[in-house]
Design brief:
Elements: E1 8-12, H1 19-24, E2 38-39, E3 42-43, H2 49-54, E4 56-60, H3 71-75, H4 77-81, H5 86-99, H6 104-107, H7 117-128, E5 135-139, H8 147-164, E6 167-172, H9 175-181, E7 184-188, E8 194-198, H10 200-205, H11 210-216, H12 220-225, E9 240-242, H13 247-256, E10 261-265, E11 271-276, H14 277-280, E12 292-293, E13 297-298, H15 304-313, E14 318-322, E15 328-333, H16 334-351
Length: 379
């Protein structure tokens, strides 16, 4: 298997399958019996083990902070081993504390026993990054803390990874965590044999065999919706009109569409309210009042699962998607989400070498107005 630079690769599998053993062979805490492991093109067995480990960040479940050392000294451990001068080491310590959201003036002199579990874990991550390694190994780093703190730290780390772009090998036994954290997932069966190595969405919708399907569990399509965002799919181009549009023109717009409502926008294209044919009956002139207020307005980075939850809990059959300035981008409804799920399943089967019946559009037989097709990746 090959791990692309700057990505998080998650090793996941049942207990005893060899996840941690596999990871520890990378920094030679466990020596490989056969085969080759290359780090940036260099065989790890050709490098002095101590020098190798100083090039690789390492975070473990129990954090591993030295209890007799201050937070400053814990973070500075590897830089000092590498011979960094005091100023460079001190500056790096402050930089890392700020990076993980901890005030250097407050936390530098503290000892590990004075920190909460979540704070210790942040320091563990900071220490692993101290020498700015290109590769980090993380062995169930969030496994020993409560669920609420774990979720918050996962989110914080994913935001941090957007900045640092490290190549990370991450071990977990939790498929939900693997799906959330991984750019790619390697599902291991007994004796570390790779059952499937792929992107999370492809594993969810096109498992390679029964073992993978059973390990992923039920509700794979719903899990996949948590990975996709509204910005990833084509939205419905709903009929719209500006608030100062003549009532007769709005009526004509509605008649030309197959919808029962027109969405009225203000001068800055911000959604205001919906109007129906009944609202347009009688009178003339513009429509500044009346109709139904535009609600369920969401950003494009909302996940499809969150959008679906909004529709189901708010008794709204659709959500209005707006950009950062609040300008209208499109509409997503239940049919849009359904079409997106079908399109993702077709794409996943194609990516895994299964027969593909055409493009993602082939997987949805709905008209183009229903939306939900996957946007093309221009990269």
């Amino acid at each position: 298997m090959e791990i692309p630079e700057g990505e998080i690769c998650v090793l996941v599998g049942p207990s005893g399958c060899g996840k941690t053993t596999t990871m520890r062979m990378i920094n030679r805490l466990i020596e490989p019996d056969s085969g080759k492991i290359f780090l940036e093109g260099e065989d790890v067995t050709s490098v002095d083990p101590d020098q190798l480990r100083r090039r690789i960040g390492y975070v473990i479940q129990q954090i591993g902070l030295f209890p007799h050392m201050t937070i400053e000294d814990n973070i500075a451990t590897v830089p000092r081993l590498l011979g960094w001068d005091k100023k460079k080491t001190s500056d790096r310590t402050d930089e890392l504390l700020e990076m993980v959201g901890m005030d250097p003036s407050d936390y530098r002199p503290r000892y590990p026993k004075e920190l909460s579990g979540g704070q210790k874990q942040r320091i563990g991550v900071a220490r692993a990054m101290a020498a700015d390694p290109s590769v980090m190994l993380m062995d169930e780093p969030f496994g020993a803390i409560d669920p609420i703190t774990r979720s918050r730290l996962q989110n914080e780390f994913l935001r941090l990874q957007e900045e640092i772009k490290k190549t990370i090998v991450f071990v977990t036994h939790d498929i939900e965590e693997a799906i959330k954290m991984g750019d790619r997932i390697a599902i291991l069966r007994e004796r570390s044999r790779i059952a499937q190595y792929d992107k999370p969405e492809n594993i969810l919708l096109a498992p390679s065999d029964e073992f993978v399907a059973d390990f992923v569990g039920s509700g794979a399509s719903l899990k996949r919706l948590s990975l996709a965002k509204l910005s990833d799919i084509e939205l419905i181009d709903w009929p719209t009109a500006s608030l100062d549009t003549d009532r007769n023109q709005v009526r004509e717009t509605l008649q030309r569409s197959d919808k029962d409502w027109v969405l009225l926008l203000d001068d800055e294209r911000r959604p205001q309210h919906w109007v129906s044919a009944e609202d347009l009956e009688g009178g003339s002139g513009s429509l500044t009042d009346g109709g139904v207020p535009a609600e369920a307005i969401v950003p494009p980075d909302m996940s499809l699962s969150a959008a679906l939850a909004d529709m189901l809990t708010s008794n709204k059959s659709s959500v209005i998607v707006v950009d950062e300035s609040g300008s209208y981008e499109g509409v997503a409804d239940l049919e849009t989400i359904t079409n997106a799920t079908k399109a993702m399943r077709v794409e996943a089967h194609g990516a895994n070498g299964h027969d593909r019946d055409g493009s993602a559009e082939t997987g949805t037989d709905e008209s183009e107005e229903s939306g939900g097709r996957l946007k093309k990746d221009d990269s």
